[in-house]
Batch of 2 targets.
Target 1
Amino acid sequence: MSIQPDATLAEIQAFLGALVRRSDNLGASANVDAEAEIRMVIAGNDRLTPVQQAEIYREQFWLRHRDSLDEDFPALSSWLGQDAFECLARAYLAAIPPSSWTLRDLGVAWPAWLDQYEHFPSGLGPVARELAHLDLGFITAFDAPARVPVHAEKVATIAEDAWPDARILLQPSLRVFAFKHAVNGYRWAVRRGDIPGSLLPAKPTWIALYRGEDLRVHEAELAVGEHALLVQLAAGATLSYACEQANALDPEGVEAQLGGWLSHWARRGWVVDIVTKP
Amino acid sequence: MQGAGWLQGRGLQGGLSFLESNALVTTSNHARLPRLGLPDLGCGVGFRIPHYAHVFENKPAVDFLELISENFLVDGGLPLKNLDRVLAEWRVVQHGVSLGIGASTPLDWEYLRRLKALTRHTQTPWVTDHLCWTRVPGADLHDLMPLPYTEEAVRHVAERVRIVQDFLELTVGLENTSSYLTYRASTLTEWDFLSAVANEADCGILLDVNNVYVSAYNHGFDAITYLDAIPKNRVVQIHLAGHTNKGAYILDTHSDFVVDRVWELYRHALQRLGSISTLIEWDSEIPDFDTVWGEAKKAAAIRNEVARTVGTEGQDEHPT
Ligand SMILES: [Fe+2]
């Protein structure tokens, strides 16, 4: 945009808002185009030029958002290393500028954006994408709404023939994932302060993240059928439809363990209601 | 100071003539009372995550705690449990960073609805945020961006503060920020700008004495002039903090002890303003709780000393 000396408040803000989101130092040659306009808007003083004053805000914009992403995506950060992580953070912030008033939401679109991103350093992409989803799961499960788990008495009143058409409502903080690598083990190693290796062999992994009674986020390994069942139920499927879908992936597991899984979920507080047909 | 009288004799540019004919000259009843009639809570500490465990376990008898509103504007989980534990034991005030009162984008009503619900829950006696802008269309900068000190900005901000105060049904205190740039468009000094906004909006001021010091250093003005110019009854709370001197400028990092010169400015402010709820902010390189509380106790000792020596109306001795 081009700014005029008599710019309105909104124009001054739009100008600075675009300036501080530039990726290079404002004193760098890449930004020489902006210098005349910066001088038109910003006064400077005897210690700092207008460009140097604006640069303080540009640098703070970058540091604040980089640090926030680094804190929220510890496993992704560790896997990529600082340079690649920062490169991706810059690209993400440029593609999807922060739009929420809270930094807590800064990374919510990052995993989906990384799913489409094609310029990872060699070989790092598949694990990086999975780690990003896992890191975000911990953030969103932590402060998701809480609902009171279903009461055992209510479960006992459900007639036998009502179960197939029942819909099982799950705790809003529950997150389930299917990964091709054991990224959960990698993340725990990072959180413990270990420096995990740079190789993560392929290993199909199904996990749930849930908020425990201690209000911390925990994880549980799932069977493949159990994962499929939870995905279907979370999408609103009836129990019979969910079982059909899960059965296709894990016929033995679903048949043998459905009852055990249900009581396991209930014990962990994952089931908040069972809605039967009137 | 009443009405527009505080503006006289300050060598202001003619542009301020608009102030004489509008709502600014009407002075609300509460503006005749120290702290707008709001309570003096003593000397408190910003409630920060590294201190949670210590505070819950040891229950320090700190006068009050300041909560960052945004940390508790969540749907569920541990933050809300921690909030209720705090509310059960301490008086709290809410301080926010996301209001963006000076932005040209529309007010964020979803944010304001959540904020109002939280103020009801915490029973905060007032709510504060910064005299700055944070957003442009399409992006939130998550920074306290300085405003140009113009008539246009006074009108714009004051109108929005009035809307927010009406909606929240609570006094809003605007905090002066540290800033690192000045605009060619500015026609007012920072203290006249702050005063004009507060008077026209009929709102409170959160006077951050460290920010006055930092901006005075960065922009070459006199901090005492600033402290002596703001409308004294509108100051509802004071902030004190440490900073980082980078040589060519000072960065407001909240990462250290309050420096001696800021303590002197604090003493000077109290001599004029009377006893004002005072809060220590420490947000990075956070030491143990007792170290931060020690700064609050130091503030309390200064307050008591000033109250004894000045003994002006509105100053109440407060236990340390
Ligand atoms: Fe402050």
Target 2
Amino acid sequence: MPNSVPKLIVRKTRWWNSKWFDVLQLFVFMVGLVWVTFNGANQMGYNWQWYRIPQYFYEIIDGDFYFGPLIEGLFVTMEITAYSIFITLMVGLTTAMLRMSNSLSGRLLAWLYLEIVRNTPLLVQMFVFYFVLGPIVNLDRFWVGVLCISLFEGSFASEIIRAGILSVVKGQWEASYSVGLAQTDTYRYVVLPQAVPLMLPPLTGVIINLIKHSAIVSVIAVFDLTTQALDLIAETFMSFEIWLTVAGIYLVMTITLSVLVSFLERWVRQRS
Amino acid sequence: MPDNAISTETIIQIERVSKWFGDFQVLQDIDLTVRHGERVVVCGPSGSGKSTLIRCINRLEEHQSGRIVVDGNELDYNTKHIHKVRCEVGMVFQQFNLFPHLTVLENCTLGPMRVRGLTKKEAKSQAMEYLERVRIPEQAHKHPSALSGGQQQRVAIARSLCMEPRIMLFDEPTSALDPEMIKEVLDVMIDLAETGMTMICVTHEMGFARTVAHQMVFMDEGRIVENAAPEQFFSNPKNERTKLFLSQILSH
Ligand SMILES: Nc1ncnc2c1ncn2[C@@H]1O[C@H](COP(=O)(O)OP(=O)(O)O)[C@@H](O)[C@H]1O
Ligand SMILES: [Mg+2]
């Protein structure tokens, strides 16, 4: 079992060590949390209107099916995520290679990028992209959002990719060079196939962050899930129901992704 | 065996080569000429620069002064020359360095397909030929980790041969092996020697050296201190350090 931490052996299984008691504890905690929330809301006189939420997912008007604003926002968020994952990985790989290259200017460029991106707030980066870079290179707000998020997450991806590549021992590079493979082929056929399985778990973390951080595009009015939620609340004042629903949607997205990646990992491990 | 024909044509020319790691000089004014078909055995105490010297021949290390010319290609900053040399020079490492994520067969076909442009089918049938020559065709579809050390090293030899090199370099190919596996690797190397391959072997297997070497090289502290035909090298070494080294190693 390479996946689990060695556990202390508990000789006698007492009832409070049982799995069921464990689950019961969690259940009691969750019920308590929900009760505190609703009780508090009732005391401040909040008028729960959950029945109005489904129409923001979909509506059927005169027999025709329409997606509601939440689902449309979800699609935009997913679109941003899909482009950003690709660009993040490209930026991460390029930066990692530049940092490990022999070229002084390449290493300097990578260092400069990492320092700037890591040491300024993401929110400020978004504004710089939107108000400064956007008009200069004539990018629309969707792509401003995608690029900004990709460059931000790319800095984390590059560290992970670099560590993965460096974990492949020197002898592998030398063997590859000695059979005449060029550097790009060495990366492609020898180094990355060994490094990628190690990178997958931490890169999943980056991608989950990317999904969460994508909410920030609402500050430049891209109609993603968060922006749709803000607009709905402005119209309906149902802030509790809508924020809870939106948090739930993000949760479903990130958990689905984690599950998919764990299947992918298992597949990669089985193949090698 | 050493008297099978060596041509007069020089295939590796090393002239006044020096190399430093920081302030430490690993190679000092090395001169060595290897002719086509010649087999050179390099020995010497650990840390004397043997590995560094042969790694300079395919540019895994870069020399800082002097000249190295391999089959007409000078090793300089021209990456085309380096590439050409690496295609003509095969190398076998002490730690085998097989690609662990590929099968034995894939280890042998990667270079030929990517570098020599063979089709998958051609590369496979050629790989099987060489795996037969190193006597493990039945392991072709296994991963290296399923093989013993001796088998892995023979695969590494086959992988190099699949590039059809004109020169083979061996860096202590049996030093990481259990004693009972040394012979199977040496036997494959002796077979290879019989085909007339140009070989440079760093090894302390003196029995092997006596059998195959045309030229014995003894290194100490970054210099070649003795360079002689094996008969003379073993029976009448000139240098005191060579004598000491041989007496130590042959007493085992
Ligand atoms: N990459 C390196 N950086 C610094 N010193 C090195 C490096 N490689 C080898 N050396 C040093 O150079 C000397 C010669 O090494 P090597 O050629 O491996 O010797 P040998 O193969 O004869 O044992 C040793 O002292 C070793 O520590
Ligand atoms: Mg060595």
